[in-house]
Amino acid sequence: xxxxxxxxxxxxxxxxxxxxxxxxxxxxxxxxxxxxxxxxxxxxxxxxxxxxxxxxxxxxxxxxxxxxxxxxxxxxxxxxxxxxxxxxxxxxxxxxxxxxxxxxxxxxxxxxxxxxxxxxxxxxxxxxxxxxxxxxxxxxxxxxxxxxxxxxxxxxxxxxxxxxxxxxxxxxxxxxxxxxxxxxxxxx
Length: 188
Description:
By secondary structure, this protein is mainly alpha-helical. It folds into 2 domains: 1-119, no CATH class; 125-188. The protein contains 4 helices and no strands.
C-alpha cells in the first residue's frame, strides 16, 4: 500500500467528513422544514387549504434550495480533495521525472525526497536505491578504467620481451574482466 497517500489516511478521514456533511444537511433540512410547516391552522377550511397550498409550494422550493446548497458544498469538497490528492501525486511524479533526467546525465548523487503526505514514497525509495547502485557502479568503473589506463601506459614503456610485460598484460586482462563484470550488459 502507498505510504502517506490516498489509500491510507485520506480515505479514513474522508468517510467521517462525508458522514458529518450528511448529518449536518439532514438536520438543516429538517429544521428548515419544521419552521416552514409550523403554521397555525385557522378554524376555517378555506384558510387551511390556502395554508397547505402555500406550505406545499414553500416545501418544494426549500427542498430544491437545500439540495442545491448540499450539492454545491459536496462538489466544492470533492474539488478540494481532488486538488489536494492530485498534488500529492503530480508533484512527486514531476520530481521523479527530473531525477531520472539527472541520472541519465550521469549525476547519481542527487536523491528524491517527498513531503510526508505524498503518495509515491516507495517509488522514491526504489529510485534512490537505483541511484546509489549506479553511483557505486560508476565509481568502480572509473577506478577500473583509471587502473587500465595506467597499465596501458606502463605497457608502452616496457620492452617487448620483458617479463614485466606479461605481468602487465595479465593485470590488464584482470582489469578488463573486472570492468566487464561491473557492466554485464556491455557487449564484447
